[in-house]
Amino acid sequence: MDRTSPDLARAFRLGIRDGLPFLIVIVPFGMLFGVLASEAGWSMAEMMAMTILVIAGASQFTALQLLSEHAPLFIAIATALAVNLRLAMYSASLAQEIGSTPLLGRLLAAYCLTDQTYGISMNRLALGPAMTQRERLAHFLGGAVPVCIPWYFATWLGAVLGNAIPPAFALDFAVPITFIAIVGPGLRTLPQAAAALVSVVVALALASLPYNLWLLAAAVAGMMTGAMTEIWLERRKAGNESPK
Fold first, then answer.
1. Transmembrane stretches, by residue range (predicted)?
2. Residues 91, 96, 102: CA angle, nearest 5 degrees
């Protein structure tokens, strides 16, 4: 009798439960992208292809805005990639938790890696209970169910409804709330808080730059600050532990 299956099933269900609150913002977030892409003249095939292939709301909105402003294509691609650089850091962190699981599962996790699914996984890691790597993968994929699938549907729904959605609904509320909900609980260390603070300050200071270049500057400044703070803390710890 396979005694691991019930544990994997429980972890998967726990992931779904952890991800359900994000439906509150995933649906309006996806609908907003569908509405804006439709207003920009994108076809249903174009917007759904981007949603399914990219599945990264922040970079999708960034690319959509830049292309709508007739920015050079390489600027749109470079900026979208810069926005998604955080996913490389997520991957490095997540690899420590699911690195020895089967390749197919890791490939699926790579596709489903978003701010929300990473946040769900890391918050559960901090809260417990302890899980094996296979259970963590099952939990991660469970969290992707209420995040990724509704994202596709919401994009399609926003494109179909378009201007029929009353402006009073203010779907754009979902964008800042989504990232506050993800980032806020994760700011547990000084490097994390310093990176967040510096990126906000730089973004606000350089908000007038064209083509959303302030995003590139804020991302780089935030990553550099986090890394430098981490190095400073490690050196300080090493100095305190050295023989007097």
1. 20-37, 73-92, 137-158, 164-183, 190-207
2. 85
